[in-house]
Amino acid sequence: MMHMTFYWGKSATILFDGWRTSTWTGYLLSLLALLLAAAFYQYLEAFRIRVKLAAGGGYKPTSIPPPASSDPARAPLLAPAFAAAGRWPARVAVATLFGINSGLGYLLMLAVMSFNGGVFIAVIVGLAAGYLAFRSNDGEDLVVVDNPCACA
């Protein structure tokens, strides 16, 4: 039976029918694996951001040419995209890292959807520990990586 509310206990099915825990040892090892996977998620995100910045994909206010006139409708919206067209290997690498990281994030979400309280706590603690270890000093709040628009 699948739980639809949070429950506590050592018996849990995590992601696959083959990943069932029935002993405390198996349960605690599963929680450790989820905690490490969540920390690895944060590591991959930090690595992707570093690769993107190293490839020159970060937002630089001087990289966007000023509009030719004061009319905002005539601003060159596609100029930054065309300027980055020569960096295809770096863009493919960043997109690949984004895909892998997104897949891992969805797997962690599905693990939390087992509604086991220990699984939920392990994933949250892993994300927080990974953020502290890999991303807390990268200045991500000061650098806009994906989109210079504040509304996106």
From TrEMBL:
Domain of life: Eukaryota
GO cellular component entries: plasma membrane
Recorded topology in the membrane: Multi-pass membrane protein
GO function terms (MF aspect): copper ion transmembrane transporter activity
InterPro entries: Cop_transporter (IPR007274)
UniProt keyword DNA damage present: no
Transmembrane segments: 24-44, 106-134
Keywords tagged on the record: Copper, Copper transport, Ion transport, Membrane, Transmembrane, Transmembrane helix, Transport
Main location class: membrane
Pfam families: Ctr (PF04145)
Localization annotation: Membrane
Family: Belongs to the copper transporter (Ctr) (TC 1.A.56) family. SLC31A subfamily.
Name under which the protein is recorded: Copper transport protein
Organism: Eleusine coracana subsp. coracana
